[in-house]
Amino acid sequence: MPDPAFRPAQPLPYGRQHITDADVAAVAEALRADFLTQGPRVAEFETQFAAYIGARYAVAVSNGTAALHLCALALGVGPGQRVITTPLTFAASANCVLYCGGEVHFADIDPATGLIDLQAVRALLGAHPKGYFQGLIPVDFAGLGADLEQARALADEFGLWIIEDACHAPGGFFVDSEGRERRCGSSQLADLAIFSFHPVKHIATGEGGMVTTNDERLYHRLLRLRTHGITRDEASFVNPGEGGWYMEMQELGYNYRISDINCALGLSQLSRAEAGLARRRELAVRYDDAFAALPGVDVLAPGRPGHAYHLYVVQVADRRGLYDFLKTRQIFAQVHYIPVHRMPYYERLGWRKGDFPQAEAYYARCLSLPLYPTLTDEEQDYVVACIREFLAG
Ligand SMILES: *Cc1c(COP(=O)(O)O)cnc(C)c1O
């Protein structure tokens, strides 16, 4: 039985990093090593992350947004290109298209999952001549794997590439039509997938991101774009080499590198990723059980296999009231997301309230509750008790 007198020792955010002594030691070791950046820990993190996710190649970058930008560049997004994504995501999933001069279009969500509604995508594709759209960016919202089998079929039919935004779902999967578990970000069905290592995500590096792919050509392009468009690979030189120092800038790239210091932390965190995921799922089951008996709280996709639980999302009628009430109890819930098309910048591009009614209805009622590996059972019981108290009015 929960202890009614329990009060958490610290405020409870919706998400937070878990840093151990081993993490600190790994970073200290990196600081004393020969390379602070462009050293062996970057490649090691890429290799181990690719193995964890089940992709052939991985390219570590400075953050998840840079990962998205590089993907859009590598796939040739530019003026006149049109890309479809979900309005229920972090702005970066859409912004990457605009960085490259392309056009963003949205398809509404499936309210049962918060994922992009592939029927709505099909309707949008069907309303234009073939070739009008070039790409699709599904997002594994909250940790639910998008159905990339269906997305791939649609993409093949209409000639689209796919970038899976898997920031919420390292270790997650969706179940395909033959009952197979398909790991999020494995890029078996997407062309490219991206991850973020911001501290609220499963694996923290401070700032950091990753692109995964099974496509060797895209992999080499991403490596070059990450470092100014410069290559030192002799086999790919355009001009004759002029000596050991020689390198070539072959296209306009960026400095989107990540440091060895960040990757030392990433490697240490990655070694605990499965344990963290298991704890998230355990906490999710505890929330599911508590809310199953609490009318007025709707849980998003409870018990769905493969859910990686970046977020634990509930929907309530008086979301604002609950948000404010929890704050007075030192519980800092969060809203994911204000739909991208409702942002003033996107409104200036022509999007309006009412354009994506499912995403807007979802936004009106959603709240992400505290969920992270170090959240204790007592703290979680306290969150549930506070919600119960609020609903009892
Ligand atoms: C966190 C996140 C990003 C951006 O990652 P950063 O590392 O913060 O740049 C992109 N998409 C989604 C869905 C995210 O959650």
Could you describe the 3D structure shown?
The chain has 393 residues and is α/β, with parallel strands linked by helices. It folds into two domains: 250 residues, Type I PLP-dependent aspartate aminotransferase-like (Major domain) (Aspartate Aminotransferase, domain 2, 3-Layer(aba) Sandwich), CATH 3.40.640; 120 residues, Aspartate Aminotransferase, domain 1. The chain has 13 helices and 16 strands. The strands form five sheets. A seven-stranded mixed sheet has the order 2-10-9-6-5-3-4, sandwiched between helices. A three-stranded antiparallel sheet has the order 13-14-16. Strand 5, helix 6 and strand 6 form a beta-alpha-beta unit. Helix 2 packs parallel to helix 8 and helix 3 packs across helix 4. The two termini are 22 Å apart. The model has no long low-confidence stretch (mean pLDDT 97). Bound molecules: pyridoxal-5'-phosphate. Pyridoxal-5'-phosphate binds next to helix 3 and helix 4.
Give the structure's gist in a few sentences.
The protein has helices at residues 21-31, 40-53, 64-74, 92-99, 118-126, 148-158, 216-226, 260-270, 273-292, 319-328, 344-348, 357-365, 377-392; strands spanning 12-13, 57-61, 82-85, 103-106, 135-137, 161-165, 173-175, 181-183, 192-196, 209-213, 230-231, 248-249, 298-299, 312-315, 331-332, 366-369. With 393 residues, the chain is an alpha/beta fold. It has 2 domains: 21-270, Aspartate Aminotransferase, domain 2 (3-Layer(aba) Sandwich), CATH 3.40.640; 273-392, Aspartate Aminotransferase, domain 1 (Alpha-Beta Complex), CATH 3.90.1150.10.
